[in-house]
């Protein structure tokens, strides 16, 4: 949730207009952006129906599939919880580029999975329910905007974005029905995965993390479609 919140705050939607819950700031005033972002978090976490903004905590994610490092992975019916607890650490807007950094204490990702191949060095296969618990993740996002004119008003739109993540504490993995229910084999995989959580995170998590942030960017774009630039910036 906070990912979207920051994107909105960085653009300084003017208080008392279409998004009165966000304090307006000048482009160079990072302290103002930071304060406004953290205040607006609970409102945006719940969604803003009048602006067509969906709830981002919980977040629903569609099908995510990847084939990398010898591992075929598919995740479906995914639910993400905990984004509403993210804290904004830094916000900076320079020209058309916005960068933000936030820390989320606990993010819980659950859903259905199907996988096969190798998890680092170990063979793995299974399908069923999964749960991934991420503790203390730092997320950095940068996006760039362009202007377009509609109905005599100018609006922003996101033309590209990128992100990086770093987990500070740990990641816990739980996959039901590994090896067709072979508990001994499943226990070995879970012990290996949770002991090598950082390496497994970089192998398993990137597709679903990108999908989560992609959903956030879509909500930012919805905001930009509703609110013209002259209500988004003091300068």
Distance between the termini: 27 Å
CATH class: Alpha Beta
Q: What's the main sheet like?
A: 7 strands, antiparallel
CATH homologous superfamily (4th level) name = TULIP domain
Strand content: 35-45%
Helix count, DSSP H or I runs of 4 or more residues: 5
**Mean pLDDT figure:** 88
List the domain count as a whole number. 1
What does this structure look like?
Pfam families: JHBP. Keywords: Biological rhythms, Signal. With 235 residues, the protein is α+β, with helices and mostly antiparallel strands. The chain has one domain (58-225): TULIP domain (Bactericidal permeability-increasing protein, domain 1). It is 29% helix and 43% strand. It is built from 5 helices and 7 strands; from the N terminus they run H-H-E-E-E-E-E-E-E-H-H-H. Strands 1, 2, 3, 4, 5, 6 and 7 form a 7-stranded antiparallel β-sheet that branches. Helix 1 (2-10) packs across helix 2 (30-45) and helix 1 (2-10) crosses helix 5. The longest helix is centred in the C-terminal third of the chain and has 21 residues, at 206-226. The radius of gyration is 19 Å and the shape is elongated. The two termini are 27 Å apart. Residues 1-16 have low confidence and may be disordered.
Characteristics:
alpha+beta, 235 residues, disordered N terminus, Takeout-like protein 2, To_sf, signal, biological rhythms, 7 strands, 7-stranded antiparallel sheet, Bactericidal permeability-increasing protein, domain 1
């Amino acid at each position: 949730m906070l990912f979207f919140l920051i994107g909105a705050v960085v653009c300084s939607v003017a208080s008392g207009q279409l998004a009165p819950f966000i304090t307006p700031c000048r482009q160079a005033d990072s302290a103002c952006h930071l304060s406004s972002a953290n205040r607006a978090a609970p409102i945006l976490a719940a969604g803003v129906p009048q602006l067509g903004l969906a709830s981002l905590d919980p977040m629903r994610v569609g099908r995510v599939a990847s084939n990398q490092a010898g591992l075929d992975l598919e995740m479906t019916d995914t639910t993400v919880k905990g984004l509403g607890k993210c804290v904004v650490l830094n916000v900076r807007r320079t020209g058309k580029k916005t960068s933000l950094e936030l820390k989320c204490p606990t993010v819980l990702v659950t859903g259905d999975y199907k996988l096969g191949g190798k998890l680092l060095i170990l063979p793995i296969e299974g399908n069923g329910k999964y749960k991934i618990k991420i503790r203390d993740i730092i997320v950095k996002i940068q996006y760039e905007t362009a202007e377009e004119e509609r109905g005599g008003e100018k609006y922003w739109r996101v033309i590209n974005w990128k992100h990086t993540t770093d987990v500070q504490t740990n990641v816990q993995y739980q996959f039901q029905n590994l090896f067709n229910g072979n508990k001994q084999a499943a226990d070995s995989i879970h012990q290996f995965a949770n002991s090598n959580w950082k390496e497994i995170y970089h192998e398993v998590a990137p597709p679903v993390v990108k999908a989560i942030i992609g959903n956030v960017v879509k909500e930012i774009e919805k905001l930009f479609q509703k609110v013209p630039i002259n209500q988004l910036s003091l300068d």
